[in-house]
Amino acid sequence: MINYPNRKVVTTLPKQSTNEQKSPNIKKSRLGVNFEDMINDSNAYYLRKDLAVIHKKPTPIQITKVDYPKRSSAKITEAFYKVPSTTDYNGIYKGKYIDFEAKSCNGKSFTFNNLYHHQIEHLKLVEKHGGISFLLIRYNDFEEVYIVPTKMLYEKYQESFNGGRKSLAYSFVKENAYLVPTGYAPMVDYLQIIDNLYFKENKDV
Amino acid sequence: MINYPNRKVVTTLPKQSTNEQKSPNIKKSRLGVNFEDMINDSNAYYLRKDLAVIHKKPTPIQITKVDYPKRSSAKITEAFYKVPSTTDYNGIYKGKYIDFEAKSCNGKSFTFNNLYHHQIEHLKLVEKHGGISFLLIRYNDFEEVYIVPTKMLYEKYQESFNGGRKSLAYSFVKENAYLVPTGYAPMVDYLQIIDNLYFKENKDV
Questions:
Q1: Chain B contact set for A73 (CB, 8 A)
Q2: CATH number of domain containing B135
Q3: In the structure, what pLDDT confidence band is assigned to residue A205 with cuts at 50, 70 and 90?
Q4: Chain B 138-177, CB below 8 Å of chain A: which residues?
């Protein structure tokens, strides 16, 4: 059995910083972490059932100071969050390389500002090299999760530079993207949709 | 062009800790980082040439304290290195999922203690799911890099529990594993060996 420590990575505020938690950005990022837990649980489920080997990448940190209180142990005393170079999740499913970014948002649209340009380019590159890549997005207010395939994401993203809207509207996603079944085991069964899209005879992506 | 910040991750001692750098363990880890730089350079080369999309995963860190000197920026003030849950590198090459751990060692043998059990199990699992996985190992004293395919690694690892040696001897690796061409661009051309092993008609792995 493989260890699965990633679930415990603290990527948001520690609980004592109650003042900060009131700002909208912080609230949003906390919702993001909940979605992250749902995905990590799903990946742990897939691993237990021997269906797929997909892990969250660690949060990239720039370490600037390290103390050595004991010879054997290092304590990091100064570090900063870095911009991720790729996406959050990758791995293998049915022999195929899987790569996706996961985001959650409040309200009726997800603004492209929440993705880095190079992350979208990375998703595109993965697809070009024969992998399966997508955005896994949760519209919190609707409690719905969707797979937005890279091709669809990229088209909308490019339109945003040519007068199109700067966001993925819930209404568009609901109509055009793929609703992911959610429940308890796994909590976010995104591989069921990947099966339909990429491993059935009538592929429609 | 995708950002490639991983090269600058500080995974070893900052330079000011000169006392510590004299211990053998630290020396070894510094050599490890040099090898890491070589691999990161190679991956950046593969990416530039549009041959493969392979990245180093960030070093996993357990964050325990965060300060917010400004509203917009977080400063981590206490954190610890964590045990990695999987391997250092993964990505996609010619449509195949690639996953490997990279290690360097001094002397004539690489002891299995330098790998976590679950990392070896992870490599095995990747292979089972149809990916390509291996150990990329540098014997520093010989300035040679080898690919040890997971099957070979696993056999030797299992033998180590049944009276076999607890390490990968340089002599064994030289005779049975695959020497990787090293140079300037790319510095460690491991995909050339992967080509020979997995993408030629006479596959011998």
A1: 80
A2: 3.40.1350.10
A3: low
A4: none
Q: Is residue B6 part of a domain?
A: no
For residue A103, the enclosing domain spans 23-57+85-198
The predicted model scores a pTM of: 0.82
DSSP 8-state symbol, B59: P
Q: Is residue A186 within 8 Å of A46, Cβ to Cβ?
A: yes
Nearest to B41 by CA among B189, B205, B158: B189
Residue B202: its pLDDT value, please?
56
In a domain, B12, yes or no: no
Comparing CB atoms, the residue among B9, B59, B85 nearest residue A2 is B85
* Any domain includes B2: no
- Whether residue A7 is predicted with pLDDT greater than 60 in this model: the reply is no
Q: Measured between beta carbons, which residues in chain A are less than 8 angstroms from residue B78? A: 75-77
The whole-chain average pLDDT of chain A stands at 85
B84: closest chain A residue by CA = A5
Kindly give the residue spans of alpha helices, DSSP state H, lying in B94-169.
Answer: 117-128, 150-159
Contacts of A4 (CB under 8 A, 6+ apart): A40, A44, A47, A55, B85
Kindly indicate whether the ipTM for this predicted assembly is greater than 0.90, answering yes or no.
no
Tell me how many domains chain B contains: 1
A152-200 confidence digits (pLDDT tens): 999 999 999 999 999 999 999 999 999 999 998 999 999 999 999 999 8
Reduced 3-state DSSP string for chain A? CCCCHHHHCCCCCCCCCCCHHHCHHHHHHHHHHHHHHHHHHHHHHHHHCCCEEEEECCCCEEEEEEECCCCCCCEEEEEEECCCCCCCEEEEECCEEEEEEEEEECCCEEEHHHCCHHHHHHHHHHHHCCCEEEEEEEEHHHCEEEEEEHHHHHHHHHHCCCCCCCEEEHHHHHHHCEEECECCCCCECHHHHHHHHHCCCCCCC
> How many whole angstroms separate alpha carbon B180 and alpha carbon B104?
14
The stretch A10-39 carries a mean pLDDT of 49
**Does B47 map to a domain?**
yes
Retrieve residue B28's tokens. Answer: 């070894």
Mutation choice for A interface testing from B92, B101, B120 by most A CBs within 10 A: B92
pLDDT at residue A200 in the model: 85
